[in-house]
Each structure stands twice: as structure tokens, then as C-alpha cells.
Specification:
Layout: H1 3-7, E1 12-15, H2 25-34, E2 42-46, E3 62-64, H3 71-80, H4 86-100, E4 104-109, H5 112-125, E5 129-133, H6 143-159, E6 162-165, H7 168-178, E7 183-184, E8 210-215, H8 224-236, E9 242-247, H9 253-256, E10 264-267, H10 271-280, E11 283-287, H11 295-300, H12 305-311, E12 316-319, H13 325-333, E13 337-339, H14 344-355, H15 358-373, H16 377-388
Parallel strand pairs: 1-2, 1-4, 2-3, 4-5, 5-6, 6-7, 8-9, 8-11, 9-10, 11-12, 12-13
Helix pairs in contact: 4-5, 5-6, 8-14, 12-15
Length: 394
């Protein structure tokens, strides 16, 4: 019996540090894809913490690594010395594999301890494993943890049955770095699950307030400098009727203090509230760092929220380096207006051009809806099930 037929129709063990009903980019990606997998075809090993959305729970058995009595202490270890937790993850995964009789392992990055623990378990049990890289590994790690990524990254990827990356630039990056061939697993949108509510605000007209919305976590290495450019643009035009809403639960107080303009509101929202805010916006803003710690991360990233922005039917502005994938993709498909200079004057010119050109706003919104059709979760999920041997080809 060959390997393909041995795992065909059998169960996967999915290992992901965050998994639905946890809220975030990675859980959203996994939810959209795995909600279409056959019932009983997979079980999950996770470390869900933080905010949850009960409506996104998936019908699978889930195993969490043990909760420790000294929660804050363990959270600090997880943030700064996660290799110490690898044995706990591996032990939990082993118990799950025994109970579920999984014949293959699906490893989801970001999270180094889950990747190493899953790889170790696969080797011990002689199971095939797959790796989904929707972030870079070594390039994202803190110095104390980066050694483990440098030590194991190439070996783990080389030994995987299949490596999945999120776009062609990420695919080429790992091919050049390690000689690893990968297949592209697109970020998806599930229009059935994330059906946008009806707009409650009238569309913008001259003399009214033009509302810009951005959502998601704010990080120095990912998007802060670009967002501060928009802050500076507003400060340079105090009499303009433009407001900015930042929808995030992850922003340190020291960063919040940077945004003092009364036209800027920082809010923490439920997923449903975020969707309403996106639909009611006049412009959706995607900031990408111009001075990141890892240039490769910005070059290869495709923020999860973009698919939701495209579904909202609102024009999008991408502000980021000219050479990065997100900017290139926006130019190619014309689903967003791009500004690739960091200066706040250039950004403001882009905002004004979109605001004052109704035809441009409509073209951008229409092009956004088109890229949604390329990323339907049900279609991509079926392809992935075939790649993993969960269902037969055809």
C-alpha cells in the first residue's frame, strides 16, 4: 500500500497555537478552510488564549496544552523562551494522536514550538506531515528564539511531504533560502460566514466627514510607521473633515498616546462590530512598515484582513514599500490605490484623490469584489483536502 492510499480518507492532526474560536488572523485562515473539511477528518491541538468568538467554533475534537498555575510567568516564557514549552506541546499532541488515530499531521506557522513539537512527533511515529507557512519563521523570532529557527527550519521544511506558502513571493523566498519547493495556499474569504451587513452611513458627499478605517493589531515591525504617517497627515490638515478609526485590541498605551488628534478613535470591537465598521467606512487603510526589523517579512506578507476589506465593497488604500507582495498584487489587480512613499504628504495626496474622485472609489470597490471571487474558501478548501489526501482527486 503506497503512502497516498494509506492516508486517503483518514484523519489529520492539525497543530496550531491559535485555532477557532480564538480571534485573529491565523484562526480566521484556518476557520475558512477547515469548516469545509468532512466531519471527523481532523482533530486540533492548540493553545487558545485571549479573545474568543463562539460563532466561529468548528465541529472537531480539540486538545489544548495544559494550563499552568503561574499564568503570567508562563506567558513570559512563551513570549521570550518558547523552546522550554516544546515538551508540553509534543506530549499533548501525542495523546491526541493516540486517541484520534491520525495518519498525518498538518503544522501551522506562526509558532515555533508547535512546529518543532509536531515535527518531532511525526518523526517518532513515522507519519507524513505538512507545513503551512503564512508567516516567515526565523525572520519573526526574537534573538533568544531565533537560534532554534535557524537550527531546525531547513530540516523541517525539507522533510515535509508538502510545504504551503501564501503567495508567489513567499514561495520564491523559501526556494532561494533553502531550496524548498512549496505550493501556494491562498488566504481565503468565506462569504457565507462573513457576509457583510448593510451600510448604515450614507455614502460620502462633499462637506461631510470622510471616514478612514483600519483594523487589526498594531506592531512596530509590521505597520506602525505607516500608520503614524497617516497620523501626521491628519495633524498637517487640522481643518479637514476626515476621521480615522483604528479597530484593535492589541496596542500598547505608549503607542496609543501617539494618536492625540480628536478625529482619531481607537476601538476594540467584536468581529460583527468590525464588519459593520468596514461596511460603513469611506476608505479602508492597509499600512505596511517601511522600516521593519525584517524586510523579508514585509516583502512576503499578505494581511488576512485584506480579504474582508475586499468583501466590504469599500475602496482600499495600501501604504507600503514598492517592492512588497501586497503592493505588487494591488497594482496588478487594481483592487487598491497604492502609496509606496513613506512621507505623510504622499499619503495625504492619495487620500484626497480617492475622496474627491467618485469614479475612482467605485472602480476600486468593484475590483476588490473581483479578487474575492478568486479566494472562495470552499473551492480552495476542496483543493487542499485533495492535496492532503482527505478526499480523492476528481
Amino acid at each position: 500500500m503506497n503512502e497516498e492510499s494509506r492516508i486517503l480518507g483518514k484523519k489529520l492532526l492539525l497543530m496550531a497555537v491559535h485555532f477557532p474560536p480564538s480571534i485573529g488572523g491565523s484562526p480566521t485562515l484556518l476557520h475558512n478552510i477547515f469548516r469545509y473539511f468532512p466531519a471527523g477528518s481532523y482533530a486540533a491541538v492548540t493553545q487558545n488564549e485571549g479573545t474568543f468568538d463562539p460563532n466561529s467554533r468548528l465541529p472537531c475534537k480539540s486538545y489544548s496544552i495544559p494550563k499552568f498555575p503561574f499564568v503570567r510567568f508562563m506567558q513570559r516564557i512563551d513570549a521570550h523562551a518558547w523552546p522550554l514549552l516544546i515538551p508540553f506541546v509534543e506530549r499533548t499532541a501525542f495523546r491526541a494522536q493516540v486517541k484520534e488515530n491520525a495518519q498525518a499531521i498538518f503544522l501551522n506557522l506562526p509558532d515555533g514550538k508547535f512546529l518543532i513539537a509536531g515535527w518531532r512527533l511525526a518523526k517518532k511515529l513515522s507519519l507524513p506531515y505538512y507545513v503551512f507557512l503564512h508567516d516567515l519563521w526565523e525572520e519573526n523570532e526574537k534573538p533568544i528564539n531565533a537560534w532554534f529557527a535557524r537550527r531546525f527550519e531547513k530540516q523541517i521544511l525539507k522533510e515535509a511531504k508538502t510545504v504551503f506558502t501564501i503567495n508567489d513571493m513567499a514561495r520564491r523566498y523559501y526556494l532561494e533560502k533553502h531550496g524548498v519547493h512549496s505550493k501556494i495556499l491562498l488566504h481565503t474569504i468565506d462569504p457565507e460566514f462573513t457576509k457583510m451587513p448593510a451600510r448604515t452611513r450614507p455614502k460620502w458627499k462633499p462637506g461631510k466627514t470622510f471616514r478612514i478605517v483600519t483594523s487589526g493589531s498594531i506592531y512596530v515591525d509590521m505597520n506602525l510607521d505607516a500608520l503614524l504617517s497617516l497620523n501626521q497627515a491628519l495633524a498637517a490638515h487640522p481643518n479637514e473633515r476626515v476621521e480615522l478609526r483604528i479597530l484593535t485590541a492589541a496596542m500598547e498605551q505608549s503607542l496609543r498616546d501617539e494618536f492625540r488628534d480628536p478625529r482619531i478613535k481607537i476601538k476594540s470591537c467584536t468581529k460583527q462590530e468590525v464588519w459593520q465598521e468596514l461596511t460603513d467606512a469611506d476608505l479602508l487603510y492597509v499600512p505596511l512598515a517601511f522600516r521593519p526589523r525584517s524586510a523579508a517579512e514585509i516583502e512576503t506578507v499578505f494581511p488576512t484582513k485584506i480579504t474582508e476589506y475586499a468583501l466590504a465593497g469599500v475602496p482600499i488604500l495600501v501604504h507600503g514599500p514598492a517592492h512588497c507582495y501586497t503592493v505588487d498584487y494591488a497594482r496588478q489587480k487594481k483592487w487598491a490605490y497604492t502609496v509606496y512613499r513613506p512621507a505623510h504628504e504622499s499619503l495625504w495626496e492619495g487620500v484626497v484623490r480617492i475622496r474627491d474622485n467618485a469614479a475612482l472609489r467605485e472602480r476600486l470597490a468593484s475590483a476588490g469584489r473581483k479578487i474575492v471571487k478568486e479566494r472562495y474558501a470552499a473551492d480552495i478548501s476542496r483543493w487542499l483536502q485533495q492535496e492532503l489526501g482527505v478526499i480523492p482527486w476528481g
